[in-house]
Write the structure tokens for this entry.
Amino acid sequence: MRIKTRFAPSPTGYLHVGGARTALFSWLYARNKQGKFILRVEDTDLERSTEISTTNILNGLKWLGLDWDEEPTLQSARIHRYQEILNDMVDKKLAYYCDCSKSRLSSLREQQLAEKIKPKYDNKCRERNLKSSDNTVIRFSNPLNGKVIFDDLVFGKISVDNSELDDLVLQRSDGMPTYNFAAAIDDYDMEITHVIRGDDHINNTPKQINILEALAFQVPKFAHLPMILNEDGKRMSKRHDAVNVMQYREEGILPEALLNYLVRLGWSHNDQEIFSINEMIKLFDLANVNKASATFSKDKLLWINKNYIQNFENINYINELEDIIKQIGADIKLGPPLHKILPFFAKRSETLIDFAKDCLFLYTDKIEYNSPSVSRFFTNGIQTSMNKVVDMLEGAQGWSLEEISQIIKSVIKMDSLKFPQLAQPIRIALTGDTNSPGIAEVIFLVGKERTVARINAAIRLNS
Ligand code: GLU
């Protein structure tokens, strides 16, 4: 049997961290088993679903590199299929029309709560044989006795008494199917073998199994993924936490690093922390998914990101870096090609934003000096030594790190200076502040002409 998994987002917002983790685990499972991974857009909630959300979610998945097989399916395009099954279910008495009003249902609920019993529909319309009308919904005739038992691939055996379950609504009065019905039918029609989703759906699973069994449709296997908590120990929420995947892109996180971070939220392989995508695919298994909830840690994400930025020989992030440098308003043509500067900067940055800011002085000629640094390092007389550096750089035959470093060393020696006394004011002249790669490297990358112009300008301004 060919393994097939799906990611089934509701298009009511952006792709959030929890959704991305679900998509990743479903994708990894399919890729590990040479199966298929498909997308299903659950857009039957007409009031909350938007096309722009669908686009945002698909863009988030594309950015992460979670590719899918087949064209994504929209549930809204399958209404006729749901209707066909519903008609059949009503004919076979597996489902029925119900015209109970909202007010009846809410007083029923209040009464049950007052009697301290679990609120549920009292099956009033089950045997009434009502016909369809504008205000009827269709309800499922849930089995009255027995249990639903399934083996969750993460949580183990789960058993629920049918007496706990409702005659749930399958179709609303506006003709739209409910989530539990549409999802169950789709998983069957799309030949999904493994439903991998957040544990917030664990209570829906027995309902979906009952629907499938009533129709004699094959029931897939289920794996529910543990909840993701924020650092306060609460469930991550859109309102309180940074959960939009694309926000991490804006913060300079690499997609590979985010995937690596997400894979560890609930899954482990010994003590390993860093996994290439291919390694994740090779090693991933639902058997190693943890039941316990996972805690989201921004620090750890940054740690992983830093690791990936350093690993520039294997991860190509030049295009993303270039976009950020352009967004800051700098001109990439002013400085060396980005691949040439990677060895000098990659070890210094946690995010691509840090990286872009760090190397900005190469791609702009507007240097803003940090005044406390200027006051500290532009000491009396240092200008003379800086002039010497300028003269020697101008006279240099070649332009190598070695030659540049010799020039700096010789001026230091000539004028009996300590290294920072000369290196820091030059660094300020070239970058605006005192924090950068080695001084010879900075001079080398800025280039002869611009270095000379910048040192001269700084001497003029700060004498
Ligand atoms: N549309 C549901 C959600 O976004 C999907 C649940 C499922 O995977 O069955 O939570």
In short: The first strand starts at residue 4 and ends at 7.
